[in-house]
Amino acid sequence: MGTGERDQEAHVSEESSGAGRTSGGDAAGASRAAAAPRTLAEALRARSDASLAALLHARPDLLTPVPNDLTQLATRAGTRASVVRALERLDRFALQTAQALAVAPDPAAYSVLLALLAGDEGDAAVEDALPGALAGLREQALVWGPDERLRLVRTARELLAPSPAHPSPTGLGPTVAEATAGMSPGRVQEILQTAGLPATHDPVSAVAALTSLFTDRTRMSALLDTAPPEALAVLDRLVWGPPYGEVSADPAPPVRWLRDHGLLLPTSARTVVLPREVALHLRAGRAHRAPEPVAPAVAPAKEYKPRVVDSAAAGQALTALTMVEDLLAEWNEGGPAVLRAGGLSVRDLKRTAAGLDTTEQAAAFWLELAYAAGLLASDGEADERYAPTPAYDEWLELPPAERWSRLAAAWLAATRTPGLVGEQDVRARTLAALGPDLDRSPAPEVRRRVLDLLALLPEGTAPDPETLLDRLRWEHPTRTGPDDLRPRLARWTLAEAEWLGVTGRGALAAHGRALLGAGGDGETPGGRRPSATTAPLLGLAAAAALAPHLPEPVDHVLLQADLTAVAPGPLRRPLAATLNVLADIESKGGATVYRFTPASVRRALDAGQAASDLHAFLAAHSATPVPQPLSYLIDDVARRHGHLRVGAASAYVRCDDDALLDEIVADKRSAGLRLRRLAPTVLAAQADPASLLEGLRAMGYAPAAESAEGDVVITRADTRRTPPRTAPAPVPEGPPLPDETLLGAAVRAIRAGDEAATVVRKEAPRTAPAEPGGLPRTTAAETLATVQAAVLTGSALWIGYVNADGAASQRVIAPVRVEGGFVTAYDHTADEVRTYPLHRITGVAELADDPA
Predict the structure, then answer these.
(1) Tens digits of residue pLDDT in 478-516
(2) pLDDT, tens digit, for every residue of 634-688?
(3) Mean pLDDT of the chain
(4) pLDDT of amino acid 715
(5) Long-range contacts for 822-828 (Cβ within 8 Å, ≥24 apart)?
(6) CB 637 within 8 Å of CB 598
(7) What pLDDT is stored for residue 678 in this prediction?
(8) Given 94, 393, 592, 697, which is the most exposed site by the fewest CB atoms within 10 A?
(9) Contacts of residue 243, Cβ cutoff 8 Å, sequence gap at least 6
(10) Domain Helicase XPB/Ssl2 N-terminal spans what residues (predicted)?
C-alpha cells in the first residue's frame, strides 16, 4: 500500500469504525487496551486472534484481498458495500438493535439502548436477548465501544437513521435539533413562549430547553393534558410513522395548536414533522412498535413415527433414481437439440415430461438435477445436442444408496433453480430448462437453512410451511419484499426435498439429517458449512443411513402369457440393462411391468444378441416358465432379422430372396425411398442408410445395417456420450466462506502488518527522518551494514521495499543470509521466508522491540 494511502487510513475517525471489545469481548482482548478504544482500528487491535477470525468469517468480503494491517481492515469494514452486505445478514432483532442505535445519541449508553427497545415499562424478553444481539453486532464490526459509549459505524448510521428521502423502519423522524436547524431564532423563541418555557439568549440553548421539555415525562404529560382531543388524534396518526404530514396554508386549529407548541415542526411551507423526542414520549420510549427479540418457532403440522418417515423417504429416493435413469436412458442415443440461446425448448420439455409421466415443473427439476450432478451435458458438436456424460456410466455402477447421495449432495449445493423454468427474465425472455440464466446465488443457503429448521423439529415431525416462512423472514428481514425470491426458494425446497427423498411426508428423514452433518444442528445462516473434505464423508454417512431402508435388488422377473414381464422389485443392474433393451416399460410402481413387442425384440437383436441368447437369458432370469407366445415372438423376429441388408452406396438393400425385393419395390409405401433394382438381389436407394433403415422398419420389415466389409453393424443403446464434462460450478453469493487455514493465515498476516506499521523504531544514523507513515530511507552502504549486523545478532528489521511493479510496502524481516546482492530473511508480514534484492530496499531501521 502506498504512503499516502496509509496516511489517509491512519486517521480513520471514530464514526467510520465499528467493533468494540466489551459486553461480549474476551478477557484477552480486555487486557490489550486499558482505555476505551477511540477508533475502530484500536478496537480491532484489542481483539484476540479468535475474535478477528470470527469477524473475517462473518464478513468474508473483508478478506478480498487480505488487508495489510488493522487500520486497513477497519477502513474496509466501514465501506458502504461491505456494511450493506453485513446488514443484510442480520436477523430481525439484531437489525432492530442497530436501528435503535441509529436513532439514539452518538455515543449511547447501554441503558439508553435498552430503554429504546424495551420501553418505559420494560420487556423481559428484550432484556434477555439484547446482550446476544449486541455481541453479534460487535463481532461483525457494526457496533463498537464499551457499554457506556456504544457507537454504530457511520455508514450504518447513514443507512438506518431517518431522513425525508429514506424513512427509518422505526417510523421516527428527526430530532428537535435537526428539525429546527433551518428555523429562525425568533420562531424558536415563540415556540418556547407558547410551551410555557422562559426565553433564552441564543438558539442553541432554546433548542436544548425544548428538547429537555419533550424528554421529561412529567412535564410532557402535563403539556399533552392541555391539548385539544383533535390534536391528540393528529399525533396518533403520526406517532408510528411516517412522521411527516401535509398541511394547508391555513391549517386547522388542532394542527395550529401542535405547531405553535413545537409538537409539530415545519420542514417546508406545506409539510410538518413529528420530532423524535415527542414520538418516543407517545410510544412510551419504544423505538419499534413490536420488538421481536425471539425468533418465531416453526410449528409442527403433523407427526409420524420416524420409521414411517424413513420408509416413505426411501421409497421416494428409489423413485428419484428411477427418474434420472429413465431420463438419461431415453437420451442414450442423443437427446434433444440445444437452443441457440442455450437450454431446452418448450416442446422438448413437454416431450420429456410425457416420457417421464410427470409434470413439466418436475421434469425440469430432474433435468437440472442430472445436470448439476454432472450426469448430463451438451456434446459440443456442430449440431449440439444433450447426452449423458461418461460420469453417468460410472454413477450407474455405484450402489443405489451412494447414487442417491451423489444426487442429493449436488442438489444441496447447486445454485441452479429449476422452479424458475417457464418464467420470464427482465428482458421478457422465457427461462428454459438447462438454460444459462437459472443460477440464483441464495439457493444453496435457503435450501440448507430450510433443512436445518426441519432438523430442529422432533424426528418424524412435518412443519407448518407458513411458520417456516415466518422464521426465514425473521432471519433475513432486509430481503423481504415483493421481489424477494427467498420465500419461493423455500417453498421449492420443500417440494424438491420430497421428490428427491430427503424428506418423507414432509418430515426430514434420517438420511436427510446425515446429509446435513451432525444431525442437522440448525445453525444460523452464515454459519460454518461442510468443507471440501467433510462433504464426501457426509455423503457416505447419508448413503449408510439410507441403505437399510432400500429394498434389495431382485434377480428375476415373472414372465406372463400376454407377452409381459413383471419385476417384483428393483432389478439388479445387468438384468435391468438387458431387459430395458429387450422390452418396453409399460407401467411403474411397486412392481414394474415390461412388454415384449416385435420392435423391442428387434432392438435386442440389433444390439448383437442372438435368438438363442435371448432364450437363455429369459430362462435364467424368469421365476416362471418362458411362455410359448414369447418364444414364438423371438424366433419369428429373429428369422426375419437381417434377411434384408442395408449398406452405404448412398444406400442399398440386398437380399438373397429376390421375391422379397419385388414385394418391397411394389409397395407404395417405398415410393419415398426412390428404390431401383441394380441386380436381382440388390436395390439402390437415394436415401441415406439411417433413413432407409427407418423406412423399411416402418413398413414392417426387420432389416439389419451392414458395414463396408459386409458385416452386420451392431448398434448399442449406450453409445452416445459427451466428451468428459465437469459438473457446473455453483455461483456463490459474494465471496466464499474462508476455511480455518485461510482464517489463521490471514489473522497472522494482518497482525504482522499492523506490527510493522505501528512498532516503535530506532532512529537510523546519518539518515533524514522519514515522513510519518513513509518508508525508511538509508544509503546502500548503511542498508548493507545494518542487514549484515542483523544476520549476526539475529535481530529483526523494519524495511521499505519496492517490488518490480513499483508498489511500495513496509515489512518486518529477520535476515538469515546476505550474499550476491540478495538478502534471505523470514518475513513476519507474510509469515514466510523470502529473498529480497538489496537494491529494491529503500532503507532499514532497527526495531525497539524484536517482534519475534
Answers:
(1) 765 556 788 999 999 999 999 999 999 999 999 999 999
(2) 999 888 887 777 776 678 888 888 888 888 888 888 888 888 888 888 888 878 8
(3) 84
(4) 63
(5) 823/787, 826/852, 828/752, 828/755, 828/756, 828/796, 828/852
(6) yes
(7) 80
(8) 393
(9) 162, 167, 171, 172, 173, 273, 274, 279
(10) 557-679
Report the Cα 719 to chain-centroid distance in Å: 37
β-pairing, 564-567 with 558-560?
antiparallel
What is the pTM for the complete model shown? 0.75
The rounded distance, in Å, linking the Cα atoms of 809 and 66 is: 14
* 847 in Cβ contact with 828 (< 8 Å): no
Query: SS3 for 653-710, per residue?
Result: EECCCHHHHHHHHHCHHHHHHCCEEEECCEEEECCCHHHHHHHHHHCCCCCEEECCCC
Query: Measuring CA to CA, which residue among 177, 160, 153, 171 is closest to residue 74?
Result: 153
Distance from C-alpha of 549 to C-alpha of 567, rounded to nearest angstrom = 19
- Dist. CA 477–CA 280, nearest whole Å: 23
Length of the chain in terms of residues written? 852
Instruction: Classify burial at 407, counting beta carbons within 10 Å of its beta carbon; exposed 0-12, middle 13-18, buried 19 or more.
Output: buried
In 3D space, the residue among 154, 442, 119, 143 whose CA is nearest the CA of residue 291 turns out to be: 119
Handedness of CA 417, 420, 425, 431 (dihedral sign): positive
Residue 335 in contact with residue 691, Cβ under 8 Å? no
- When comparing pLDDT for 454 and 821, which is higher? 454
Task: Characterize 428-454 residue by residue with b for buried, 16 or more Cβ atoms within 10 angstroms of its Cβ, and e for exposed.
Answer: eeebbbbbebbbbebbbbbbbbbbbbb
What is the C-alpha to C-alpha distance for residues 441 and 756, in angstroms, rounded to an integer?
Answer: 39
Task: Please state, as a whole number, how many other Cβ atoms lie within 10 Å of the Cβ of residue 123.
Answer: 16
- Residue-level pLDDT at 6: 36
Query: Which residue in the block uniquely carries the three cell numbers 413545537?
Result: 262
The whole-angstrom separation of Cα 364 and Cα 535 is: 26
Cα-to-chain-centroid distance, residue 606:
48
Tell me phi and psi for residue 133, to 5 degrees. Answer: -65, -40
**β-strand pairing of 461-463 with 841-846:** unpaired
CB 775 within 8 A of CB 810: yes
Q: What SS3 state is found at 772? A: coil
Q: Cell numbers at residue 650, please?
A: 448412398
Helix, strand, coil shares, percent, the chain, to 5: 45, 15, 40
CB proximity list for 368: less than 8 A, separation 6 or greater: 414, 416, 418, 421, 433, 434, 438
Other Cβ atoms closer than 10 A to 848: 10
* Helix spans in 239-291 (H): 253-260, 276-282
Identify whether 65 is preceded by a cis peptide bond (ω within 30 of 0).
yes
Q: How far is CA 839 from CA 283, 352, 778, 790, 804, in A?
A: 69, 69, 11, 17, 11
Cell triple for 336: 434433444
**pLDDT at residue 532, rounded to an integer:** 56
Q: Is the peptide bond before 107 cis (omega within 30 degrees of 0)?
A: yes
